[in-house]
Structures are given as C-alpha cells and as structure tokens.
Amino acid sequence: MSTIATHRAEIDQIDQQLLKLLNERAKHAMAIGEIKIANGDTEMYRPEREAQVLANYMEKNQGPIPDQEIARLFREIMSTCLSLEKPLEIAFLGPEKTFSELAARKQFGGSANLLPQATIPEVFRAVETGLVDFGIVPVENSTEGAVNLTLDCFAQTLLSICGETTLRIHQNLISGAADVKSVKKVFAHPQSLAQCRGWLDKHLPHAEQIACHSNVDALMQSQQSPEDSAALASEEAAQFYQIPILAKYIEDDTSNTTRFLVIGNKKIAPSGDDKTTFMVSANDRPGLLNQLIEPLSAHNVTMSRIESRPAPHTMWGYCFYIDIMGHQDDVRVQKALSEIHNRASLLKILGSYPQARY
C-alpha cells in the first residue's frame, strides 16, 4: 500500500530530474543565443516560435494538469531561459500592479523587465524610441468594447502588432473606509467604471465617479481621503499597496475579459495560427463598407472584428480597424488585401501575429 512518505520520495526523485533537465535546457538556450550573436542575429525573442512551442505542449498534454497551466509553466521556463541571454524590456500602462502589468507578466513571464508608463501614448513612444523591446496595450474589453486611445495611436505610428493576450478582469472595490456605505467617491479608469456600472448604481448610487489614467493611479488618488473614497482595481494591487478590499468581483459580467496587443518594431513570421490587423479608409460612396470587406468573403478569409474611428486630419471621415484570421503572407490573405487596397484610399497593415491560445 502506498503511503504519503512513498509519494513524497517519488516527488523528490522527479524534482531532482526536473532540476537537472531545466538547467540542461537553459544551457542549450544560451548556446543558441551565442550562435545568433556570432551570426549577427539580435532577434532573441521569437513570438511565432514561442506560440508554436506552447501550442505543441498543450496539444500533447495528457493531464491531470490543465492545458492553460501547462502553457503558463512553459512560458515561465522560456522566460527564464531567455533572460540568461538578454532579459526583455517591456513597457506597460503603469504604475505597478495595473491590469496591463498582469497581462505583460502573462505574455512575457516573470523574468522580463517591466517599465511602467504613465499613458498609452507613452507606451508607444517607449517602443518607438528604443527604450524597450516591446510594449503591451489594452485594445478591447468584452463588456465595453474598443479602447479608442489605443486604436488612435495605431493611426500615427510605424510600430507593428507582434502578439496578443487576453486577461480575465476581476474588479474590486478597494478602500480604507469603514464599509461600502461610507464611500462617497469612486476613482477608476473609465473602462473599469463602465464594467461595474450596474453594481455601482445599485450599491453606491450617490457616490461621485472620478475617471483616472489607470486603476493604480485611482488607488493613489483615493488615499488622499481614505475615510470616504474608494478605487476599482485588482486584488494584486490591493495586496501590493496594502489597502483593504471592501467588495470583491463587482464587475457586471462574470466573463469580463480584456484583450491586449504586443507592439514592436518587427514583422512576425507565420506561426500557423495567426491573426492580421489592418486599418482601411476610403471616400464616402454608396455601399462603401460592403465594397471594402467583400474581398475577404470572396477569398474565404474570416473577419473576427471591425471597429470604426474618426480619420485623423479629416472632417467626418472614418477609418475601419479590422481583424482577420490568417497571416499576411498567406496567399488567400494577400489576394484579399490586394483587392481591398485597390478599392481604398488608405490601407495600412498593422501586423500579423500569433493568436492567443490561453
């Protein structure tokens, strides 16, 4: 009959094997880095390669560990090995413990160096100026839709989309007030206020709602009068800044999720499971939108998302931001985009990148 001691002995043996194998893996990763440097190749991080590896491990996983946890574990292993070659520098919408930081940790692992930026445009600038290798920005929420500031930044940058990740968003009412009824002001990012609109209307109908650049900025502002102010933020932020949580998981939609995009200065090769995002506009005419997207259907390309925004420097003109399934190097995608280009006054491919798998 097996005993706890027997299982613990087996675990100790397995852990010793894991320790040896992890270090062997790290040595091979470092050797690859040295070969790349000798060949003049500075591209240490390959998003498409990482996506392929994670997808392969998830498909081969036989449990009992869930696929998503397998991906998370191997992401950390790859992050650690990459840091032995050169730690990645990543810009995100700060301060520390924002949802953007949590998304960056999910995408790049715990060994990346994260640099907080005060605004979304500053994340773009940090990448454009070479301060960091990549940036990560929110682009849409499952409840409240597009993050318009991010879309507008894409209209003015030469950066490309290099990846995406999604993050389940749990909003919490965080405050030093005695109880919920004592709260007279709620500070939060506008998206967070919108995600909790129903809860706030029911439990704090008379509280003033004050928009901030980020939820951690909201936490800091709420502490100026902690006896009657609160903020909406993550559990991690509450723990990090040591401020009590008055109410947990107050988002109106229990499946509330935000999608984040990775931005960088490189074109990403096909991974086999990709998306392409492009921006398109044209002079107004009857059936304009239908004419612009018709080539997608004609070439069997799936459109997964479309948003419209005012075109820069144009009165009453609009740009459409479109996500499609497939890589811009795929023949059918190339044919569809070529036809759209012929019908549009502007076509700007923002990037092809691996689709988020977990």
TrEMBL record:
Signal peptide boundaries: none
Pathway: Metabolic intermediate biosynthesis; prephenate biosynthesis; prephenate from chorismate: step 1/1; Amino-acid biosynthesis; L-phenylalanine biosynthesis; phenylpyruvate from prephenate: step 1/1
Keywords: Amino-acid biosynthesis, Aromatic amino acid biosynthesis, Cytoplasm, Isomerase, Lyase, Multifunctional enzyme, Phenylalanine biosynthesis
CDD domains assigned to the protein according to its UniProt record, in alphabetical order: ACT_CM-PDT, PBP2_PDT_1
Ranges where the Chorismate mutase domain occurs: 1-89
Stretches assigned to the Prephenate dehydratase domain: 89-265
Subcellular location: Cytoplasm
ACT domain boundaries: 277-354
Enzyme nomenclature, EC number: 4.2.1.51, 5.4.99.5
Stored InterPro entries: ACT-like_dom_sf, ACT_dom, Chor_mutase/pphenate_deHydtase, Chorismate_II_sf, CM_dom_sf, CM_II_prokaryot, G/b/e-P-prot_chorismate_mutase, Preph_deHydtase
Regions that span the bilayer: none
Amino-acid biosynthesis keyword on record: yes
Substrates-to-products reaction catalysed: chorismate = prephenate; prephenate + H(+) = 3-phenylpyruvate + CO2 + H2O
Function: Catalyzes the Claisen rearrangement of chorismate to prephenate and the decarboxylation/dehydration of prephenate to phenylpyruvate.
PANTHER family: PREPHENATE DEHYDRATASE P PROTEIN, PREPHENATE DEHYDRATASE-RELATED
Protein name: Bifunctional chorismate mutase/prephenate dehydratase
Species the sequence originates in: Wohlfahrtiimonas larvae
